[in-house]
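Two quick folds needed for the group meeting slides. Do the first one here.
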Amino acid sequence: MPMIRRLPETLINRIAAGEVVERPASALKELVENAVDAGATHIHVRLSEGGLAMIEVSDDGCGMRPDEIELALERHATSKLPDEAIEEVETLGFRGEALPSIASVARVTIESRPQGIADGWKRVVDNGALLSEGPAALPPGTRVRVEQLFEKIPARRKFLRSPRSEWAAALDVVRRLAMARPDLGFTLEHDGRRALHVQPDETLEARVAQLVARELAGNSVKVDLVRGDYHLTGVAGLPTFNRGVADHQYLFVNGRPVKDRLLIGAVRGAYADMLARDRHAVLALFLQVPGSEVDVNVHPAKTEVRFRDPQLVRGMVVSGLRHALSSGDRRSAQAPSASAMAAWQAEPIAPPQQASIFAQPWRPEARVADAGQAWRGYEQSVMAPMAARAEEASEPVVAAAQHPLGVARGQVANTYIVAEAEDGLVIVDQHAAHERLVLERLRAGGAGQGTAPSQALLIGEVVELEEVACDRLEEAAGKLAEFGLVLERFGPGAMLVRAIPAALTKGDPAKLVADVADDLALHGDALLLGEKLDLILATMACHGSVRAGRVLSVAEMNALLREMEVTPRSGQCNHGRPTWIKLAHGDIEKLFGRK
């Protein structure tokens, strides 16, 4: 049996480096966090080849004396934990392993000068061995340069990705840390090119929009919720402003960027009935909790946290987001699609059956009477229905100024409502809009709270399904009854529908039950029951909404517009698509060359 022995210090540092320094972005994160904790007001980062060749972080913080520089390169030495109350730590880093771990697998040069001291000091360490030290000329603050990362450890070096991939990871690290501290200035250069620059003392909304997407400023709502000692703030994108991947969701706990499953799941739950299943919200959320209520020492990189009361945190995120969105997301997309606007400028093509009226070459002998007769025929066949609809929509134009979504003037393709507002032309997708209204009506009626009104069927309808699907429906029958959908098992492969939600009396019970079964199968146990039922409620709303292709009277159109103006989340349907767009007067004038 081999003897137990104490590992050499260099090997201990390399083992620690494997936990802390996985790639250049990991080393960069530790160095920038040190600069933040040092009280810097501006942090300058320089990278070469994505950090594979060089990482340099300069700050104007408190700086270090020569003896402190030497101590900082020893394991478990830190200035960020003044006593043993590790649960009360407020700094980003406190383990004291970052610098010695990085110095054990790379060439590290530390230069620092404390505030009020005339001279600085430099110390160079190469893979754990001291190379040199001496005076250095630099302004107050600290500069750390990391070169040749894993150069002498080929086994680690070969697992690193390409410089382009490493650069993307490094950029994400700086972006997240800059977002967490809008009071600090950040500059990031890569291979001599400035890639990011933000000024200190910005508002949270301005900093998030600058780092995520400038369009977010006009397509987001502010989140602000306080529950006791917990405080949730941030910026949440409207459901219509979404992405195909979830990499634009930035989550912070006590100023620390995290990637926590609980918070990610809460965000998904909050947007569950407002986004298509393959779309993801864009947001930045900042949760401030007492230090004793969260454990930030779960992972060496401190990207995971553990909450003392996870259900409180989850409920706070969901309710905070939904409250913010319900008060601000009556808005839809802020501007029509650029490609759609370009299509408006194409030369119109007359229908084939009418082309002979307008496309004939001009002949002097042509009689005006013939032309007049041709036009009257065209007017009677094509324009008469439009005139009848316009006569039906005889509400005064002045009334448009009284309503944000305007007054209905007609219907296009029996699918889109055209309304005149005071500041432009509003086009509404009638199915998408009514789908949202039905969903909110179901909620307002108590769906999911045990008080939803239901309509009993005179004769129960039997719906045949696979046995597994029936098992899922039977298991969820109690909760489905809270929505007004009353089901009973009717043999191994069938369900009996006793009642349906009162708001869905015109729907098809068989299709409704089949879709609910599909929803339960799709989400399985991955979502909490409340989130599953939210999705089921959205499915019910879809079945009870006005379909595209249905002719509406002007009174029905205006009733739909008025209800949209007072309904939360009416700016998008249950799948995250916009329910209406607006062409401002300026846009219309551009289409006709008036601007």
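Then this one, please, same format:
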Amino acid sequence: MEKNYKTFTMDLAGRTLRVDVGRVGKQANGCAFMQYGETTVLCTATASEKPREGIDFFPLSVEYEEKLYSVGKIPGGFNKREGKASENSVLTSRVIDRPMRPLFPKDYRNDVTLNNMVMAVDPSCRPELVAMIGSAIATSISDIPFDGPCATTQIGMIDGELIVNPSQEQWKVGDLNLTVASTSEKVIMIEAGANEIQEEKMIEAIYMAHEVNQTLIAFINQMVAEVGKAKHGYTSCAIPDEMFAAMKEIVTPEDMEAAVFTDEKQVREENIRNITAKLEEAFAEKEEWLAILGEAIYQYEKKTVRKMILKDQKRPDGREITQIRHLAAEVDLIPRVHGSAMFTRGQTQICTVTTLAPLSDMQRIDGLDENEVNKRYMHHYNFPSYSVGETRPSRGPGRREIGHGALAEKALIPVLPSEEEFPYAIRTVSETFESNGSTSQAAICASTMSLMAAGVPIKKPVAGISCGLVTGEGGDEDYIVLTDIQGLEDFFGDMDFKVAGTHDGITAIQMDIKIHGLTRPIVEEAIRRTKEAREYILNDVMIPAIAEPRKEVGQYAPKIISVQIDPEKIGDVVGQRGKTINEIIARTGVKIDITDDGKVSVCGTDGEMMDKAVEMIKIITTDVAEGQIFKGTVVSIKEFGAFVEFAPGKEGMVHISKISKERVNRVEDVLTLGDKVNVVCLGKDKMGRMSFSMKDVAQDVV
């Protein structure tokens, strides 16, 4: 077959990146058939011919599809098809969306879909990275309006050494998981999880990735020059200048400033409702203006807030540029649960509840990364409509909720105790009671306190805070960084830079922006500001509420006793078809987990029953020695004696001559089934059975 497509290659971090254009997917607006090493991802970009009517946002959809055939697996369950998107798929889609969305025209309303289908996975080349690069390529070479290209690089760190585009295994075991997207000039997106990385090292890693991104952008520009399509025209949905002029005659800039200048979200929203009603009345004869009035008011409000902050250095709630809203923290808000805490920052309020369970309750993962098969720590975040004064039915967590939960989870994993130190599966659930900006960071603070209240021996407390940004038209030096942004400053500002960490370093970063990138001074100032803020939150708010983890888990939390047995004795504990272990569970009410290396975890709430179960396990797995005394149950009576079960699945014979010091004519004269008796081991008889004596050991007096 004659080759009728173009192939582009480059060396990227010691591996070959190959892109075929025109080989497949020719009906998409743009298509890149990507191979990095042997990882293969099909990336496409498509756009509708006409704008979607009646919307005031850019309808971009990003999909990351994990096909299990890519790693030689058949999906589990009855259906044997890939089901709904995994958490990793959702998070990857979000990371692709965040740097690319700002590069589309702000007045573009055509539907755009970026689809990334993982078809083969080479463990040395992470498919998520290939999809990120492929989406940028497919869009750049397409006819879809796009102010790119952008590029993405991942950085890991092992033993202090930074690694460009680490393998799946290096990504799993390293001290840094950093993803950075850039344009040709500036950083446009940062996502990081880190094991208390110092701020200076984090900045070094960010700009190492930025430099690698420049080589990728040059590579993409080469493709655009050779195979790129001319960008198509589109119907602009910009607000007419004459409409803005008419609005300002009815609602002056001073009126709008007075409406938004309040620290009460509800008051501000009521003020905007009154302004909307006034303009609706004024424009009653202009149907075309009424159709876009909501977007016009939004933009008017946005310009007013940005002018107040940038030119007058006035924040809507009256705070100073570096001032954090009023903070409060408390623990043990919810009775009976294993741990609870609430963190309040202004009108943002999060309650986190911790639940402890045996390790067998950890989450199983059926994904593409062979190094990621289960999750011991799970953080789930919920954002109900009442938290922002709205009404809508709950349909389960959306992509935003999954993303916020994953960010908090990432921030806390570095400080969790090991399984050996604390053999529990851990779940934290953050419930948003009230929201006015940066709930994800409040969830980190609440979760830290909830874990400590539950008796989880975390290494250090973690706090999170976010910074915002407002830029002007005076070049790279015309900007203001805001500490602790509220909802309005997030909506109308240019950045949401979230950083979580301990006293000693960063554990997570997530940066979203709405402009075409950040300069290095802005990145450095945001990281410095967040460090100052989290030190204050830790020292002045969280530690006074709970200074350290409680020494023991709570009254209602399960207790776990761990014992180590010989792995070859696991079968003895389990028994044929699970008979022995199920008998122990039935007698004691505990839950038992056994790992392949012989680690046995006994979980329960009744300490006496847990001790009894441990004792049974020890008896089963320990070779019985002559002279040992046991308490057993008569389970069978024969003419020549009785069989006594001294542990689940373990029996021994008491010969009729060993039942009593007095002569026994019939066993039934002394023993009945179910009797509890004390026996001493005499060793093995001629048939190899354990032999016991009752007469040589004192019996309990009932």
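Slide caption for protein two: The mean pLDDT is 92.
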